[in-house]
Amino acid sequence: MNKISLIGNLTRDPEVRYTQTGKAVATFTVAVNKPGQRQADGTWKDVPPDFVPVVVWERLAETCGNSLTKGRRVFVDGRLQIRDYETSDGQKRRVAEVVASAVELIERRPGTGGAGAGGGSGVADASSFGSDVIPDEEIPF
After folding, report:
1. What are 107-116's pLDDT values in tens digits?
2. Cβ atoms 101, 54 nearer than 8 A
3. Number of other CB atoms surrounding residue 75 within 10 Å
4. Burial (Cβ within 10 Å: 0-12, 13-18, ≥19) of residue 137
5. Average pLDDT for 124-130
6. Residues of 86-96 as b/e, b for ≥16 C-beta within 10 angstroms?
7. Using CA of residue 30, residue 33, residue 97, residue 116, what is the dihedral sign?
8. CA distance 140 to 1
9. Checking DSSP bridges between strand 50-57 and strand 92-106, what pairing results, if any?
10. What is the pTM of this model?
11. pLDDT of res. 123
């Protein structure tokens, strides 16, 4: 089984591009915190986060591009993909990335000390990101 679930913060705004066939693809990086390490003297040492590249396709890619910004906390669910490619100067590279099937915004509300309010999880479904708003000049009546 190939399944990955992450919670972390976006390190930059998503970048949305389109393939030659017109499919949207968004890429962004999520900083995922790790637990600290206990030292021999009993103190705790901070451990730097992991920076995980994420790829999102089609409608969800456009939604992420329109709704997510640097610093926002997100839940990403998907699969791990490891691929090889060649740079323009002929060097071979390998990259591991998460191909997301779901991306959910985790909202932190002021005064709650954490995510959500009223005991809820505070996780907004990806389908609730923004909305499909038709500009007035495109309404046919």
Report:
1. 765 554 444 3
2. no
3. 20
4. exposed
5. 46
6. eeeeeeeeeee
7. negative
8. 48
9. parallel
10. 0.70
11. 40
Query: What are the distances in angstroms from CA 135 to CA 47, 64, 138?
Result: 47, 20, 6
In SS3 terms, the chain reads as CCCEEEEEEECCCCEEEECCCCCEEEEEEEEECCCCEECCCCCEECCCCEEEEEEEEHHHHHHHHHHCCCCCEEEEEEEEEEEEEECCCCCEEEEEEEEEEEEEEECECCCCCCECCCCCCCEECHHHCCCCCCCHHHCCC
Tokens matching residue 14? 């998503």
- Average pLDDT of the residues in 13-38: 91
Q: What is the pLDDT of residues 44-93, one digit of tens each?
A: 778 889 999 999 999 999 999 999 999 999 999 999 999 999 999 999 99
Spell out the residues 6+ positions from residue 109 whose beta carbon is closer than 8 angstroms to its own.
Answer: 115, 116, 117, 122
27 phi and psi angles, rounded to 5 deg: -130, 145
